[in-house]
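User: My advisor asked me to double-check a structure prediction for PCD23 protein before group meeting. I don't want to rely on an old file, so could you generate it fresh from this sequence?
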Amino acid sequence: ENFKPAQALNSLKLVDNHLRTNRKLHFSVIEDEEDDVHFEIDSSTGDLFLSKELDYETASHFLLQVIIKDYNNNNPPENHTIFLSIDVEDQNDHAPYFQDDFVVIGIEENVPVGTLVYTFNAKDEDGSFLNNKIQYSLEISNMDENPFRIHPLCGTLTTAFPLDREVTRSVILTVSATDQAINLTDRRLDSLAVKVVILDINDNSPSFTSLPLSYVMEDVEVGFLVHHIIAKDPDEGRNGQVTYHILSGNENKAFVLDKITGLLTTAQLLDREIQERYSLTVMALDDGSPALSATQVLTIIVLDVNDETPIFLNQLYETAVCENQDPGEFVLRVEAVDRDAGLNSLLQYEILPGPGFENFKINSGSGELVTTASLDRETQEVFSIKGIPSRSSTMQLYLTVLDENDHNPLFAKTQYQISVSEDLEEGSAILDLFASDEDNGLNGEVTYALIDDTYGTFAVDSVTGSIVTTKALDRETKSQYTFRAVASDCSTHLNSALCGVTVLLQDMNDNVPKFEQKYYKASVWECQTPKTDIIQIFATDLDNGLNGEIEYSILSGNENSTFLIDSTRGILATNTVLDHENTSHHRFASSHHLVLLASDRGTPSLNSTATVLITVLDVNDNPPVFISSDYHIHVKESIPVGSHITEVSAHDSDAGTNAEITYAIISGNDKGHFRVDGKTGSVDLMKTLDYEDSTKFTLIIQAT
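Assistant: Sure, here is a fresh prediction for PCD23 protein from the sequence you gave:
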């Protein structure tokens, strides 16, 4: 197929027994319209030429129809047809080729040996078997040992050794595809660059690179960086992302750990004297699935700061030193401790400056205290000791000079006057007596007693001096108590002192006003002018002040405000003109029942009541009044003498004798025909009547 165009392939010759030499022949090739013309023939000589390059892979065989025309003595010419078969021999003119110029392949690092990684498929367009038969080979340039192998015929790439991404992240391979032409020099090849990326799996646990020991001063502020915890994980992506956690040892929440950065900071103030060492179990956890972890015990040592004050074993030391002893007398040994460490815990003792401190000296190292002069208890008894250098503590030393009973008790006051409420309950404290004695021990211990009669009303606590009531108080019975109290020491000589006590009882409104009588009677004449005094009533109240001031008022029975009472003096008087009788407009009773109220001015107010019966006495101020002013009587002239004619009646609103009526005929009875009964008003006939003499009598009757 590599024959060049214009070269003669062959010559067509006629067989001798058919054609004579020197014949005039014409050669031609019948062209197929569908085929591309690759051959030409010399029409005179019959030489066959290649007119176009051949391609075995396009056409490997040609069948040509050649026409030979013989013009010798033939008219028309004689035609001969020859079929020429031409085979094209293949030449290795195509190199194998890959579809891609560069391939990137990913494979997980934990696959077993022999795992198929990729299948290469190269093409060769040659037509013959050996020329298009491909064999694959593999080269590696950046490693001593190739972890992959390739099948020479199938082109399958497989793992030859275990992979480890943490050792080799990727491998660059050169894959070659070579055809198998017979002549080695004719063989062609193509190469492909392949990058095999080893994909990570979470096959590595985090490992700590930071130290497991850290130091921190105890006085650092909250939020101080204590330690940077670092753990590395050679895995990739989330498999290599590490977070940090405290598993144990942080029960008191002293520290906080940033899970992302691994920064460990203080979450609260530290105190070495409470805890000087922390052991935190810290976990580093990756984000793979499943997650892998590692733990480390981080020891944190808290370093001492001089932040502790020395503390005396006793805050108060008590001892007794006899007065008038020679200087150098041992008093006592004090001891203090400091919870700090090292130099911060070394102490030295001194006496604080103060009154009388020059009478003592202290050994700065041992804490032994001795006198430098004779002591006087009454002059100085309290001293303070301080620890140095950087911080200090004080204690108080009470030195007691052994006492003689050379002082009497002394009351704070020689005379007490107090006021107490009379409603105090039994057992109530009213006064705390206080007497001091500068002596010591029993010589200075004071007891109290009352030496005057308090009528069983008061008592004193012999120890505290508190005066209490022993029974209920009543100001109305006794308003003031005066007595004396004595304070005595407990020595054998019983030195004592006296004070006077005056107790004034304050009034409480505990008494109700009392009327002299519960029931009063009084009378008053009717027709008296208003404001006429009727009666004065009295009530008494044993209380004092406003509690004993009484106000009077009418509680009930005073209809129409007929009466009034002086609220201060208790005088009851009329408020209107009284009328014993009934009138057409008002009806007044002849007696009135009033309920009077006596109230004190205390808070709350107390009161009582009394009843007053007031009788209104009658005055003859009403004339008799006939029931009818005219009487018309018809009688027969024939009625006998002594007959009852009629009866007149009058009424008098007055009472008693003022209301007794006498009747008399004062006019019209000149001849004495009639008589009226003076008591009953009965009119009787005394003489015979004669119609012809007199047909009518007009009698005027008087009621007196």
